[in-house]
């Protein structure tokens, strides 16, 4: 037999955690004979769970979507509620802040960080995040909003993160080419359908998209490109190259070509021949662009292997990098030169072979990743070199000029050799110094004596005066550094090089002692004749040159220092 004992609990809104009380059986009273006695279990503990009153703070939702403003200068406000439930009788301090994702603070939204104060009996606060117009056409971007723990240690924070998506008004275009692009040698650009599967070594390669009129199947793909609204002149290119396969046949992985130089780029329709050699694998990736200028999807070509059998300038000995030395000459032009009188002419001739980039300078060449880049370091360091384009020169002349064709070569040796549209103007100015028929580089420049000493690092030395002669000898010495450079996808910095150096010397003979012996005479056509003989030259304490001289008149009279 059993009886129920009911205990009434009083509900309140104050969170008190787990509470306990004891229920105890008292002294039994019974009318039956012998009475009743208590058993061993005459007391129990009752625990009151207060889960409903536990204070909890959270973001109302964990995902929000907001539209980007339509016009520049406009902004929109996203209101995000932060709610508190349970016991509201105490103060809670919660830090809330934003964090970048694909959306960036200051560009796509205004960063937000604030401490929220939940005063007693406050159950809801709103946070306002400002969304900005960025003017870019992108996919949906996102950032996050985070809640920190209660600084008062009163409330528990749940669901502390919300993702905010910014719906772009103008999204990235979804245009794409109807089929893969293809790679051929630039010499085969006009007849790509019959081009060799292995482009020739030593000449640029070109990436032909299905929307290019040179594409072999353009009669079919051209209509698709028109319907898609693709503007092929805006196509974005990317190139990947791998080192030649080893003797064991193992191929290296393709790597993005990022080693741009001051005269050649790596995101053009063509890739210059300095970036590959015979046996290299080359791949291009082309991104379609709509007529509105919106970039779409990217497609990659099938990788091609550069021919090992066909090239424009093969080395005399396979693998003999740097075995063919350069020649350098320095001479004085004299006053009779019709174009460059009284200057010192420097001419450097370098044998060429496929994939080689020759660099010359009067300063030591190091760190080719920076030296070859468009960065301004080379301009300030190598003032007398072929690393400077004509508009970067700090001397009157340079090895590169604004000319794009070699005057010694008639016509084109290869198709599109002088096409600025396919190869760029800086590239043509550099390759103007290469004779493809002779496979020979020739760099020529002119300098005066001051430029050689002050800008080129040259030095002047006096070789003395020969006894009993009225002539003196002066030599100018100019250091010369030459590097044969090759691109390597696996080398540190992207370049391998073979370095050579030399010193150019030019000796001048001049008649200074003749002044002491014969003096300085008046011109023959002068009515009054006379001579001036230097007797001593010294430099005073003030740095001025003091010249003592005697005179010899050849007329009736004498020289005077001044005359009224």
From TrEMBL:
Keywords for the protein's UniProt record, in alphabetical order: Calcium, Repeat, Signal
SUPFAM superfamilies in alphabetical order: CalX-like (SSF141072)
Residue ranges of domain Calx-beta in the record: 44-148
Calcium keyword on record: yes
Gene Ontology process terms (BP): anatomical structure morphogenesis; cell communication
InterPro entries: CalX-like_sf (IPR038081), Calx_beta (IPR003644), FRAS1_ECM (IPR051561)
GO cellular component: membrane
Protein name (Swiss-Prot/TrEMBL): FRAS1-related extracellular matrix protein 2
Organism in which the protein naturally occurs: Stegodyphus mimosarum (African social velvet spider)
Top-level taxonomy: Eukaryota, Metazoa, Ecdysozoa, Arthropoda, Chelicerata
């Amino acid at each position: 037999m059993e009886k129920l004992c009911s205990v009434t609990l009083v509900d309140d809104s104050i969170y008190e955690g787990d509470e306990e009380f004891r229920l105890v059986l008292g002294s039994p009273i019974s009318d039956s004979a012998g009475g009743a006695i208590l058993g061993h279990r005459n007391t129990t503990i009752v625990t009151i769970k207060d889960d409903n009153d536990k204070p909890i703070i959270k973001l109302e939702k964990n995902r929000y979507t907001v539209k980007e403003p339509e016009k520049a200068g406009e902004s929109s406000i996203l209101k995000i509620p932060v709610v508190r439930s349970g016991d509201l009788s105490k103060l809670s301090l919660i830090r809330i802040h934003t964090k970048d994702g694909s959306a960036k603070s200051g560009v796509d939204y205004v960063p937000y960080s604030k401490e929220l104060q939940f005063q007693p009996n406050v159950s809801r606060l709103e946070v306002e995040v400002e969304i900005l117009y960025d003017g870019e056409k992108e996919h949906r971007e996102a950032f996050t909003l985070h809640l920190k723990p209660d600084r008062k240690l009163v409330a528990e924070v749940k669901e502390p993160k919300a993702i905010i998506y910014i719906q772009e008004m103008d999204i990235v275009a979804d245009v794409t080419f109807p089929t893969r692009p293809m790679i051929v040698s630039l010499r085969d650009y006009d007849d790509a359908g019959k081009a060799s599967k292995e482009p020739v070594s030593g000449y640029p390669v070109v990436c032909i998209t299905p929307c290019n009129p040179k594409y072999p199947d353009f009669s079919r793909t051209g209509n698709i490109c028109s319907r898609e609204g693709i503007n092929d002149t805006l196509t974005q290119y990317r190139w990947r190259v791998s080192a030649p396969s080893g003797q064991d046949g193992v191929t290296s992985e393709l790597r993005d070509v990022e080693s741009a130089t001051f005269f050649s780029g790596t995101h053009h329709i063509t890739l210059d021949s300095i970036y590959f050699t015979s046996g290299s694998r080359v791949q291009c990736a082309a991104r379609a662009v709509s007529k509105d200028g919106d970039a779409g999807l990217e497609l990659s070509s099938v990788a091609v292997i550069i021919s090992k059998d066909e090239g424009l300038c093969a080395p005399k000995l396979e693998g003999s990098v740097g075995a063919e030395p350069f020649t350098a000459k320095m001479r004085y032009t004299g006053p009779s030169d019709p174009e460059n009188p009284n200057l010192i002419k420097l001419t450097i001739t370098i044998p060429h072979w496929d994939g080689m980039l020759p660099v010359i300078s009067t300063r030591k060449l190091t760190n080719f990743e920076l030296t070859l880049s468009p960065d301004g370091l080379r301009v300030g360091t190598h003032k007398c070199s072929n690393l400077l384009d004509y508009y970067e020169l700090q001397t009157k002349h340079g090895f590169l000029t604004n000319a794009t064709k070699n005057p010694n070569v008639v016509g084109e040796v290869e198709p599109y050799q002088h096409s600025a549209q396919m190869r760029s103007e800086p590239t043509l100015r550099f390759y103007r110094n290469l004779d493809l028929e002779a496979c020979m580089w020739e760099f020529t420049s002119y300098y005066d004596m001051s430029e050689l000493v002050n800008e080129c690092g040259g030095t002047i030395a006096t070789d003395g005066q020969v006894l009993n002669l009225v002539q003196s000898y002066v030599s100018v010495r100019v250091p010369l550094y030459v590097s044969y450079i090759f691109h390597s996808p696996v080398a540190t910095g992207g370049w391998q090089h073979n370095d050579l150096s030399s010193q150019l010397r030019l000796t001048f003979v001049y008649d200074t002692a003749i002044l002491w012996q014969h003096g300085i005479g008046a011109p023959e056509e002068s009515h009054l004749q006379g001579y001036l003989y230097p007797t001593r030259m010294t430099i005073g304490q003030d740095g001025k040159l003091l010249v003592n001289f005697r005179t010899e008149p050849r007329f009736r009279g004498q020289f005077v220092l001044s005359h009224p």
